[in-house]
Design brief:
The protein is of the alpha/beta class. Helix content is about 45%, strand content about 15%. Keywords: DNA-binding, Transcription, Transcription regulation.
Length: about 375
């Protein structure tokens, strides 16, 4: 749990609110909004009120404020994992925003189906938060209905749910533009590598696959299920197996689009391990624009989880203060392709290359962790 600024209440014998307001240089209504922890108070004004509180010996009490306002002073976040670039970047943006608003952050990590089932059975956030942010989950209708019954704002992040507030990138458009980048370089045998995970954690993966398929269809390129394979993020062995499957095809791909940067980097590592030049023989494109994309000169489709989290946090604060606010608002962020050194125009394939690729596929598939 990440804590942030407390709410305040007057100690016995302290000055009345007008005196307090005069010392802070604000109105009594602003003092009231600050004591109630409302996000409409700017960080600069909140700091002045808290400074005045310390000077005249106001007592710090989040519990007392909760009794008065019916609020907990907490925003809950539901994430599939903490061990991911996306989550870390998002929470690093969200935490200071909430802290400036006088709220604390409570994170629920739900990495597998067992944890997920337990969460929806008990709903620990029911009495312990003023809002819930749901990151990157493809929820069932029953799970969505359970969250609707929480009686608090629920904001979906990196996923969109009809009729509910959501903040996300257009994954379909992002993958479509990424695939077009490869098509414009002359590639027609373009593979797509998805990531494996527990059922229900695949929202972005499904959307990106759809964008890839749409781009190929628009270009008149027949869809080939053999060019779509799955792997596990962070596993060189899994990446090697996926790559081996692709290179062993009768017509192997000349370009590979990985739905995450870390998967793309693992593919590049395995390609170079088997002496297949990137991008001269195989182009590789990622999705995210993580720091490692720049380090590995990886062409990628960029998104900003920090901006996504910031906008979701601001939306949560508005809905906490106004429960009748726009509950159906969708904020859609753009993506853009960043060409780097891992993609290039398709090269002419020399005679006998297919048999060589098959041998390379067997070699790639035998790579170890």
């Amino acid at each position: 749990m990440l804590t942030s600024g407390p709410c305040l209440q007057p100690s016995t014998g302290t000055p009345r609110w007008p005196t307090f307001a005069e010392r802070a240089g604000v109105s009594t209504s602003t003092v009231s909004r600050t004591l109630r922890g409302l996000s409409t108070v700017s960080p600069e004004v909140r700091a002045r009120v808290e400074k005045a509180a310390r000077e005249i010996d106001f007592a710090v009490s989040r519990q007392a404020a909760s009794l008065v306002t019916g609020r907990t002073g907490t925003v809950a976040v539901m994430v599939p994992t903490l061990n991911a670039w996306f989550t870390g970047s998002a929470l690093s943006s969200l935490a200071p925003l909430l802290r400036a608003a006088g709220l604390q952050l409570n994170v629920y990590e739900i990495p597998d189906l067992a944890e997920r089932t337990a969460f929806f059975e008990h709903l620990p956030a029911r009495r312990n938060a003023d809002a819930l942010l749901v990151f990157s989950f493809d929820l069932t209708d029953e799970e969505t209905a359970r969250l609707d019954d929480l009686g608090m704002p629920v904001i979906y992040v990196s996923a969109h749910v009809d009729g509910r507030p959501s903040v996300y990138v257009d994954d379909v458009a992002g993958a479509l533009h990424g695939t077009r980048h490869l098509l414009n370089l002359g590639h027609r045998r373009i593979a797509f590598v998805t990531t494996e995970g527990a059922s229900g954690f695949t929202f972005s993966s499904n959307e990106r696959l759809l964008g890839y398929q749409q781009a190929l269809t628009e270009a008149g390129v027949p869809l080939d299920d053999d060019l779509v394979v799955s792997t596990r993020p962070g596993s060189k062995r899994a990446a090697a197996e996926a790559l081996g499957t692709l290179l062993s095809l009768r017509e192997p791909p000349t370009a590979i689009f990985a739905e995450q940067d870390e998967v793309a980097v693992a593919l590049i590592w395995n390609l170079r391990r088997t002496r297949i030049a990137v991008p001269e023989r195989v182009s590789v494109l990622g999705f995210d624009d993580q720091p490692l994309a720049d380090w590995f000169d990886l062409s990628t489709v960029a998104q900003s989880p920090s901006e996504m989290a910031r906008l979701a946090g601001e939306l949560a604060l508005k809905l906490i203060d106004d429960s009748d606010g726009d509950q159906e608002r969708h904020i859609v962020l753009p993506t853009h392709v960043i060409p780097r050194g891992s993609t290039a125009p398709v090269a002419a394939r020399p005679a006998g290359d297919q048999s060589a690729r098959a041998a390379e596929g067997q070699s790639a598939g035998s790579a170890s962790e």
